[in-house]
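Q: What structure does this chain adopt?
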Amino acid sequence: MLLAVASLALASAGCGTPPELRRPVPVPTTSAGPTATATPTVPPAPVSPPPAVPSPTAGSDLVATTCREGPSGDRVIMLLRGSADVLPRSVGVRVRTGPLCAGEWQYTVLRVTGHEELQVVTRNRSGALELVTAGTDVCTIEVRVAGPTGIRTLACDAVPGGVPGA
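A:
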């Protein structure tokens, strides 16, 4: 029996714990592909405000706006039927657009019964309303050279049949 105990002691001393009783040892794994690395997040670039656009003010030449102190549509019609002798009294006329003012100039579009729309450019000279031009094309040399930007835009750049200045 002594031999059996000695051989058991020898067997256990030399060999250690049998493999089936051992705890599994974690085996390091290697990956064949590239490893993911954290990419730094970049904050979005600050958005700059749009450039400041000057707002039209009364008396401004840049943009034609509804006349506050200028002539009424009826006053423009009276000028065309009176001393300007452009419209006969028998023709029906209604204001479609305006008068729109830029500086001392005005732009008006009239609906004339039985005819094409009539564009009218006027200006105030010494307090009196004066006809500059009237017709279906009012982009005359005088308007292009002497007219304020807001009136030139309406008279020369407007799309036929569209909304003037749009």
